[in-house]
Amino acid sequence: MSKEITSREQDYSQWYNDLVLKGGLADYSAVRGCMVIKPYGFALWENMRDVLDKMFKDTGHQNAYFPLFIPKSLFEAEEKNAEGFAKECAVVTHYRLKNDTANPGKLMVDPEAKLEEELVVRPTSEAIIWNTYKGWIQSYRDLPILVNQWANVVRWEMRTRLFLRTAEFLWQEGHTAHATREEAIAETQKMLEVYADFAENWMALPVIRGVKSANERFAGAEDTYCIEALMQDGKALQAGTSHFLGQNFAKAFDVKFSDRENKLEYVWATSWGVSTRLIGALVMAHSDDSGLVLPPRIAPLQVVIVPIYKGDEQKAKIDERVLPLIQELKAAGISVKYDDSDNTRPGWKFAEYEMKGVPVRIAIGARDLENNVAEVARRDTKEKASVSLDGIASHIKTLLNDIQEQIYNKAKAFRDANITPVNTWDEFVSVLDNKSGFVSAHWDGTGETEEKIKELTKATIRCIPLDNPQEAGTCILSGKPSTQRVLFARAY
Amino acid sequence: MSKEITSREQDYSQWYNDLVLKGGLADYSAVRGCMVIKPYGFALWENMRDVLDKMFKDTGHQNAYFPLFIPKSLFEAEEKNAEGFAKECAVVTHYRLKNDTANPGKLMVDPEAKLEEELVVRPTSEAIIWNTYKGWIQSYRDLPILVNQWANVVRWEMRTRLFLRTAEFLWQEGHTAHATREEAIAETQKMLEVYADFAENWMALPVIRGVKSANERFAGAEDTYCIEALMQDGKALQAGTSHFLGQNFAKAFDVKFSDRENKLEYVWATSWGVSTRLIGALVMAHSDDSGLVLPPRIAPLQVVIVPIYKGDEQKAKIDERVLPLIQELKAAGISVKYDDSDNTRPGWKFAEYEMKGVPVRIAIGARDLENNVAEVARRDTKEKASVSLDGIASHIKTLLNDIQEQIYNKAKAFRDANITPVNTWDEFVSVLDNKSGFVSAHWDGTGETEEKIKELTKATIRCIPLDNPQEAGTCILSGKPSTQRVLFARAY
Questions:
Q1: Tell me: the pLDDT tens digits for A62-86?
Q2: Do the domain assignments include residue B88?
Q3: pLDDT tens across A423-459, in order?
Q4: N or C: which end of chain A has fewer CB within 10 A?
Q5: Phi-psi region of B209 (alpha: psi -120 to 50; beta: other; left: phi over 0)
Q6: How many CB atoms sit inside 10 A of residue A112's CB?
Q7: pLDDT tens figures, A109-129
Q8: How far apart are the CA of A393 and the nearest CA of chain B, in angstroms?
Q9: Mean pLDDT of the region B328-338
Q10: Domain-embedded: residue B170
Q11: Among chain B residues, CA nearest to A78
């Protein structure tokens, strides 16, 4: 009846691909590692983008747009950042094609159109933006600059996965400039909180707020704050990062301002971003073997109504009752579709909307009408109920809130049950292999030990949680003293 | 007092650059031919984008996203399209940088990371999209596909101008697929009308709807519809195009569908786009020697309120009256800023908002308060009036509508006065050189004559207006018979 989906138990990875492809979110493309975001997936992204964009504007940020290309000499100016991204850079070397005389009808790169300086396709925009800020900042009166950009970026990844890791992806990158270290750190933390708020209250995705270890920091940052989420297979996923960049980029691009005492100082910086990767997180956190499960607050479609009828007369009667209901739902700000197409059967439609994760399905048949009821099915729990048509709109409104809450609670219960404290190496390995999830363990604080643990187990330090309790202990690997536990996990 | 702007009479081109730069719309960047769109300019683009996006959705279109890169072999598949854009293509040839051992701290393109097949940075997306549609279309039930994409594109232009012609620009590109020629043509025309509606009713920019001559068609199209606008210097500007692509791309990418009779047919296509170039058109159509003039319906800020006071006591009294007014304006959907910053004088602020083209300025001083009035200045005509504070919000609302209408009427009167019919070659040249604007003249219909006229005068056929009256005449250049006049102009 419906398109077949591999079950999670059978093959989690294939289940994920099935959902993304058959749920209509994305498609593979002819370009290695690049995907096509299909209309349904893009509508989801638009909803997420619009909510985030409002949050950014409500916290005083404005959008702008900077060039796609970064001249190599600018790209390499902040050395750590450049080094971190060099291996993943797509590079434009020529600006013209010409007819390939040896192959009529074909084109070739024109060797005479070689650029004097190669252009890097932005993997992130600190370099081009800080080179621009140099011209915008003279005095403390020009600060802060609170700018965000919605853009595509390219990172030439060797192993790609739809949404989770693609060569090109869509994201937003905030780039702010401040007069003091304190203000920049406050901004970094504020934007982390915006991301956590968005993840939890809109995506229904519980996250742990934390700080990265030095090894896992963004290249060029002094501190990387992050939100970490847990997927259903027990692997962690970094859902957003906010970086305190210190004066690294100001120094690389010589961006100084005169302060109130007319003294020249380097500017302090932050950057922060989330990407279409969040869609991958959403799919893997909530969905089931029947298809996508989408939180109502960001679902492209919240309610679908399917009429069940024989003949035009029954259909007309159902229409008569449904059309005012649609108006009522729309007036309440609920997105609704009346799927009365007659080329597919109701059963097919049920499976299709289940696959697409539409939170609420209303089915109305001729007998329902007689009884003044409709069948209301919720996608998350698959529960069905017969609901009186009187006041059904307000019932739906409440139900959507319930579903949002229930999806979050379920994900949170799962996440909480999968944070396992361990005290020995054997326990650590055993939990990773048999239970997975986050493992809370003591670590001696060195990059060396962290690296060794990663080599041995593929687990990385996901974060040092904010407000982490201080607690004396010994490192699970080195046995050296430790002052706090950190969260390890295998991750996407 | 204010930043200096070159006058139009002195140097029209410099006037334009001054407005874009000093009005805070855009900035030059370190990348040849690429610009930075500054927050104020981007807010304007966001307003334009949001209106257009709603228009597209209201006409049944959905957004999606396709890869930035197009493999060369796909790019060259539709030969005319490829030929038309080949000379402007930025090409990615490598996917990695590495340390330049000869220059410590510098990077170089890694010669070992050469792509097997070069990737073209999209100058337009027909190729990658039709290669994707091939997988989406099997039967007539899959049609129509009505998809739009908001994206950046790159065309390596040799001479660039901020907004008007940049190597990278932002745009939207609609790409639709249909079962019949008639339906595709109807879509092409419908979207032209959407563009004309947007230009006239939102941008206050009167446009002529028309069809391009064969020489001026989009590469790969069977017909290109366009809207043409007139700038204050008498040059024309193509403000939007909508292409009927026939079956050209379906044939190049082998996209067939089985129709109701189960017969395989090639799919019919359209594409249509407008870009950040529209911002250039907006600036050049309406602005004056004091700065930008922006139509209220798309202005990032519609009303600015400037208090004029001495001392905290006067300020407090003004605040008391202004804050409820702000609430009232906001409740009416009007964007308003209260500029009570104390580090610049009112005169400076007046000049600044004039420069930025804020449609309405309200100034309130202590004496105004005593008289229960405020000074209301409109940007377009620079008229000032003393307006009673009672009911001022509704006055402002009406005023914004008046300004919108007045800006349009002024541009339309100018445009209409600058469509000059001529019947001889001497007249034609004389009008182009002395009056400029659109010249309505007979043409023999051949590409040869058109090319010759362009060589001799730099004027091109802007369009053959829709519903053009048929009228016998003789071609201004060749003297051969002609059945209708067409519009010539020098153009951006």
A1: 999 999 999 999 999 999 999 999 9
A2: no
A3: 999 999 999 999 999 999 999 999 999 999 999 999 9
A4: N
A5: beta
A6: 8
A7: 999 999 999 999 999 999 999
A8: 25
A9: 96
A10: yes
A11: B105
CA A66 to chain B, closest CA, distance in angstroms equals: 5
* Phi, psi values for residue B257, rounded to 5°: -135, 155
Rounded distance between C-alpha atoms, residue B237 and residue B9, angstroms: 20
Q: Is A335 exposed, middle or buried (0-12, 13-18, 19+ CB in 10 A)?
A: middle
Q: Which residues of B touch A154 (CB under 8 A)?
A: 68
- Enter the tokens of residue A66: 């900077």
pLDDT in tens, B115-134: 999 999 999 999 999 999 99
The tally of domains found in chain B comes to 3
Strand-pair partners of B178: B268
Do A323 and A353 reside in the same domain of the chain? Answer: yes
Residue B76 lies in a domain: no
Check CB contact under 8 Å for B29 and A94: no
A36: nearest CB among B67, B76, B95: B67
Number of A to B CB contacts under 8 A, please give it. 197
Tokens of B352: 């600044």
Q: Do the Cβ atoms of B107 and A36 come within 8 Å?
A: no
Residue A250 and residue A255: Cα distance in Å, rounded?
A: 5
Cβ-count burial A69-100 (b if 16+ within 10 Å, e if not): bbbbebbbbbeebbbbbbbbbbbbbbbbbebe
Rg (CA), chain B: 26
- Phi and psi at A397, nearest 5°, equal -60, -45
Quick one: residue A479, left, alpha or beta (phi over 0 = left, psi -120 to 50 = alpha)? left
Is B92 in contact with A95 (Cβ distance < 8 A)?
A: no
CATH number, residue A311: 3.40.50.800
User: Could you tell me the pLDDT band of residue A4, with boundaries at 50, 70 and 90?
Assistant: confident
Chain A partners of B107 at a C-beta cutoff of 8 Å? 72, 75-76, 82, 86
ipTM of the complex: 0.97
Tokens 């790609």 locate to: A160
Per the CB < 8 A criterion, the answer to whether A119 and B90 are in contact is: yes
Q: Domain with B210 in it: what CATH number? A: 3.30.930.10
Asked whether residue B136 falls in the same domain as residue B167, the answer is yes
Percent of chain B with pLDDT over 90: 98
DSSP B186: H
Chain A residue numbers with beta carbons less than 8 Å from the beta carbon of B141 are 343
Are A387 and A444 in a shared domain? no
Q: Which phi-psi region, left, alpha or beta, contains residue A239 (left: φ > 0; alpha: ψ -120 to 50)?
A: alpha
Q: Among B252, B286, B320, where does a domain finish?
A: B286
| pLDDT tens, position by position, B405-460 | 999 999 999 999 999 999 999 999 999 999 999 999 999 999 999 999 999 999 99
Q: Do A377 and A254 fall within a single domain?
A: no
Where helices occur in A206-333 by DSSP H, the ranges are 248-252, 277-286, 311-331
| Whole-number Cα distances in Å, A182 to A93, A244, A267, A268 | 41, 10, 12, 9
Residues B355 and B477 in one domain: no
Could B36 and A106 be called an inter-chain contact, meaning their C-beta atoms sit closer than 8 Å?
Answer: no
Range of the domain at A381: 303-399
Q: What is this structure's pTM?
A: 0.97
